[in-house]
Design goal:
The complex is a heterodimer of chains A (348) and B (312). Chain A has 348 residues and is mostly helical. Chain A contains 13 helices and no strands. Chain A folds into 2 domains: 256 residues, no CATH class; 70 residues. In chain A, 82% of the residues lie in helices and 0% in strands. With 312 residues, chain B is of the alpha/beta class. In chain B, the strands form 3 sheets. Chain B has a 6-stranded mixed sheet with strand order 6-7-8-3-9-10, with helices on both faces. A 4-stranded antiparallel sheet of chain B has the order 2-1-4-5, with helices on one face. In chain B, helix 3 packs across helix 4. The longest helix of chain B has 16 residues. Chain B is elongated and about 80 Å long. The relative contact order of chain B is 0.13. Classes of the chains: A mainly alpha (348), B alpha/beta (312).
């Protein structure tokens, strides 16, 4: 049974890959879509000022890329894997073969991950080659250096603010103690605003740590991440697992509900926009949600090409990979369990 | 309808199926025996729903469905024993007919070489061998129907379900498909064929299941069903020694709607609104007039008239 299932999965996988890549229309669309990031990279490196490059890269690879190049293709290919067979009514021929029905899900899923992984990797590899990040014509991307500069400035500013607040708190506490001694000598003690100021300063320090605490620890992770030989491998690993997790999620949606596309669009587009301002990384750093936001939807490792990636890979890679792997496995398993229990030929 | 000693090929017990709020089948209980059975009904009668239920594509909301004695929903092992030629005209259009069949054959467990061989054999069986290398997207309607029939035969199934297999086919393709169905039955296979075109089924079998608006209206042999119907309109042909005289007598009967002379005045065609009443009155008239009736037969003992009666 196991061998038969594996064989059926392989046959459906191979057929789906051939169908997807064998249609000229699909190839043209994929080329246009995936050629855009390297083209944009080339334009920016060639034409833009370093600071403009930095802003463009941060925006594109931080916000646009994860949504447009990870979530949306996964929704289109993963979410529609089963729905396409149903809509084209070819599902009938698959359901009438003496193989476990979950193999239909598994075969389509693996095909979608392979196609998306290859296209995305090729697109990013072209981007890296063009921008010189991995041995291309330019030795270093000015934009990345500008981003790094801005991080360093932000780090210095954070430290300045933190030190100022700490000194202010110490001064207020000193004053409070001094007034306390004075109050013991001259009871009743008049109420002054030192206590209130102290409360405010402490609140400001907590806010600073909560909102920008990560910045204060950048340099340690930076040092830890420097000269990492497996940086590209980890990036590609995160990329493929991100695709696998996204595809599994949308495949499950496509298997579970008829209006999967709308739900997927809402998730892919609105979730990062809503979640990112609400959940700053430092607040949910130690939660799964943090890794989910960071790697599944808003993949900051991918958002930060070059040395900047090390800032995140140093600490986040193990947890991120684990979360991505678990997400992929859980949603794929859920789809495989659900599919044989549902009816997909619902027209009279 | 099947012989009590022979286990039914297909049995449904109190089966109902809804599509949301639309009723597909309502409390259908029936059994289909060996050989060919025609599944009749107008569009939307529930034929395709029934075929999807008996091939395990749909799960009944109520009741049970068994094929070859086993429940059919989500049973890959049983699927190996049945074949379906679906109504819908959907394929992987970019594949060739031979490649598609071979791929499906491999999904049934055959190795690559055996699957290719099986595909070629089936293409030959449905007279498509010469077109096997063409993309399915370029096939004519008749070729597509025959290709669907070929895929239904991949498992060498014991029971074959054919959903409107002759729809859209030209006379040559139709004759080929009908011939192939007859060969399968002769080889001991059971065939359930659905159609809303009665004469298609009539040429293959006189055993029918008739559905209308999701309900079972009749099952059994056409003539048996007809006998179970009491008074209903029909035509009777009478060959008698004095046809004009008998015709005049019959015209006076309230159950007779029309009398026509046929064969140059040698026979009568009588149209009646009440069959049983008419035959009683006819017997009385024949005895009273001492007529010599040489032949008496229903002129429209066809599926069409039974169908019209049952769905009216």
């Amino acid at each position: 049974m196991g061998t038969e299932a594996a064989r059926a999965t392989w046959l459906i996988f191979a057929r789906t890959v051939a169908r997807t890549l064998g249609r000229p229309r699909n190839l043209v669309l994929a080329f246009v879509f995936y050629a855009f990031p390297p083209a944009l990279g080339w334009l920016l490196v060639t034409l833009a000022e370093p600071r403009a490059q930095a802003a463009a890269f941060t925006t594109f690879y931080g916000i646009v890329y994860p949504t447009l190049y990870l979530a949306l293709p996964a929704l289109l290919l993963g979410g529609s894997a089963i729905a396409r067979e149903v809509e084209e009514r070819t599902i009938t021929y698959l359901l009438l073969r003496p193989v476990p029905r979950w193999t239909v899900v598994a075969g389509n899923y693996l095909a979608a991950v392979l196609v998306l992984g290859l296209l995305t990797t090729a697109s990013l590899a072209a981007f890296y080659a063009i921008c010189g990040l991995r041995g291309g014509p330019a030795k270093e991307l000015g934009g990345t250096e500008a981003v790094v500069d801005s991080f360093e400035k932000e780090q210095a500013e954070y430290r300045r603010e933190a030190r100022a607040l700490r000194e202010r708190e110490e001064a207020l506490r000193h004053e409070q103690r001094a007034r306390g001694r004075g109050a013991e000598a001259n009871r009743p003690r008049p109420t002054d605003d030192v206590d209130r100021q102290l409360v405010e300063v402490r609140r400001d320090r907590r806010s600073l740590r909560r909102d920008r605490g990560d910045v204060g620890r950048l340099d340690e992770r930076w040092r830890a991440g420097e000269d990492r030989p497996d940086r590209a491998l980890v990036l590609v690993g995160i990329l493929w697992l991100g695709i696998a997790a996204n595809t599994a999620l949308f495949l499950f949606l496509g298997t579970a509900i008829r209006h999967y596309f709308m739900a997927g669009i809402v998730y892919a587009v609105l979730y990062p926009l809503v979640a990112m301002p609400l959940f700053r990384a430092s607040r949910i750093k130690w939660t799964v949600l943090h890794f989910h936001v960071q790697t599944l939807v808003h993949n900051e490792a991918l958002a930060a090409p070059g040395r900047l990636a090390d800032l995140y890979l140093g600490e986040a890679s193990a947890g991120a990979l684990l979360v991505l792997l678990a997400t992929a496995v859980v949603f794929l398993a859920a789809a495989c369990v659900l599919f044989p229990r549902k009816e997909y030929v619902l027209d009279r | 309808m099947s012989d009590a000693a022979v286990p039914p090929v297909v049995s449904l017990e109190g089966v109902s199926k809804w599509y949301g709020e639309v009723l597909g089948l309502s409390d259908v209980t029936l059994s289909i025996g060996p050989g060919i059975t025609g599944l009749l009904g107008v569009n939307g009668a529930g034929k395709s729903t029934l075929l999807k239920l008996v091939t395990g594509q749909l799960r009944p909301d109520r009741g049970s469905v068994r094929v070859l004695g086993e429940p059919v929903w989500n049973r890959p092992a049983l699927v190996r024993r049945i074949g379906l030629c679906p109504e819908q005209d959907s394929f992987y259009e970019e594949m060739t007919g031979a490649a598609w069949l071979a791929w499906l054959a491999r999904l049934t467990g055959l190795g690559r070489a055996a699957a290719d061989e099986r595909a070629r054999a089936l293409l030959g069986e449905v007279d498509l061998l010469a077109e096997g290398g063409k993309r399915i997207g370029r096939y004519s309607k008749g070729m597509r129907q025959r290709l669907k029939l070929a895929q239904a035969l991949l498992n060498d199934p014991e029971v074959l379900f054919l959903d409107e297999p002759l729809t859209g086919t030209d006379p040559i393709a139709r004759a080929r498909i009908v011939r192939r169905i007859r060969e399968l039955v002769a080889a001991g296979r059971h065939v359930v064929i659905s159609s809303h075109v009665l004469h298609e089924v009539e040429t293959l079998t006189d055993t029918i299941v008739l559905l209308h608006q999701g309900r079972l209206r009749a099952e059994g042999r056409v003539e048996e069903i007809r006998r179970t119907l009491a008074d209903y309109p029909c035509e009777v042909r009478i060959e008698v020694d004095r046809p004009r005289e008998l015709g005049l007598r019959l015209l006076a009967l309230p159950s007779v709607r029309a009398v026509l002379l046929q064969d140059g005045g040698d026979a009568l065609l009588v149209r009646t609104d009440a069959q049983e009443t008419f035959f009683r009155a006819l017997a009385e008239q024949v005895v009273a007039g001492r007529f010599d009736v040489t032949r008496l037969a229903p002129a429209d003992d066809r599926l069409e008239s039974v169908f019209q009666r049952l769905v009216a």
